[in-house]
Amino acid sequence: MKLRADQTGDRGLPMPLWLQGALETAQAAVISALVVVAPIVAVWATAGFQNGQFEVLARLAGQSWLLVHGVPLGLSGAGPATASHGGSGVLSLIPLGLTLIPFLLAWRAGRRLARASYTDQLWQALLGSWAVYAAFGVATGFVCRTADVAINLWYAMLVPLIPYGLGMVVGARREAGSWSRLIGVDAVDWISRTSQHSRWAGSYLASAVKAGFVAAVSALTLAAALLAVDLFIHWNLVVSVYEALGAGPVGGAALTIAQLGFLPNLVVFALAWTSGAGFAMGAGSQVGPLATAVGPLPSIPVLAAIPSGPLGYAFVALIVPVLAGVMAGWWFLREGENHFDEWLAIKVHARWFTATLSTLVLAALVGVAAGLLTACLAWIARGSAGLGRLTDIGPDPLWTGLWVAAEVGVGVMIGYAAGPWLEREKTAGSERHGELVH
């Protein structure tokens, strides 16, 4: 990118990388703000707000932008939102679906900046972009503070950098093709200087962590499918809540967009439900396959799909993390990096003992990796609505991680043990198919 280009064909002076990063970030900040403003303007156009003053709506849009980026908002008891519930609270429940918007914009900006930078110059573009985004966040927090909504300016400056900075790094890595091209450090050369045993141990642990990632993604996918089935079964209840609200076409659309913003949160809630740990929908409540006890819930359509009443066969859902572990165990077998089993087989000649011990160790490592990843997702997805009982919403990260780790570990043992049989069946099927073709 250049600063100017005249008719002679001279491209002019190259734009400094810090300035290009600042411009890319300013563009991303404006686009993400417009995405937040659009539904607010639509509701205002249909007289959906009691107070339709411009400054009130502008502050509401800024507060929504900060919440989308993960900045907690302090709700004062003096405001109308909390006066009916008493006390004050913190709004920290992040709509992860809407957080994907700045993440994807940062991903695009990261790719463009990596394309325009050399390996040892990318830091200039990143520094300029992050400085602008931090300034945008702190300015938004400063302008949008009110007597009813308290905003910590340090949080407003630093927290938005987490999703945005992560998106930029992922995008730059995608464009560069490798970490060595991105940061100038050749990991392959560094690994080649280590001993053979260190390389074997490193590849074994790396494959175990990757298998844990496979288990977590598989569990999330199965939980998402189960959530879709649950919404389909309770669709009549969801529609009844929509009709009872009488929000109109624009209000209903805005409410739907807000619920779609929390869809990734609901998928994590569903994963916690299938693990047996369950999740909370208010202080003192519990929603799980083994027991469900919740109090009065707000009139949000998607909450009507929460399973309630007798759940005689709900315990079958506990098989979801186990199936994810089976997939992870099979994947690890196909990866062919079980160097710990090979080392044990050399040291101890009792194969029944070495095979059992190596499988147990593998199940523990993959289960811990999947459990840690699930615990992080549960911690990100949970939060507080800051009103009344709704100060505890979502799964408990510790218990969810422990349940998932244990169930994935069981599945890994099954998948790794059944993997050779599955591979033989696959090979035999391919051979039969080849014979039919000939």
UniProtKB/TrEMBL annotation:
Transmembrane segments: 25-45, 57-78, 90-110, 122-143, 149-172, 213-233, 253-275, 287-306, 312-333, 353-381, 401-422
Short name of any one Pfam family annotated for the protein: DUF6350
InterPro entries: DUF6350
Protein name: Integral membrane protein
Superkingdom of this protein's organism: Bacteria
Keywords: Membrane, Transmembrane, Transmembrane helix
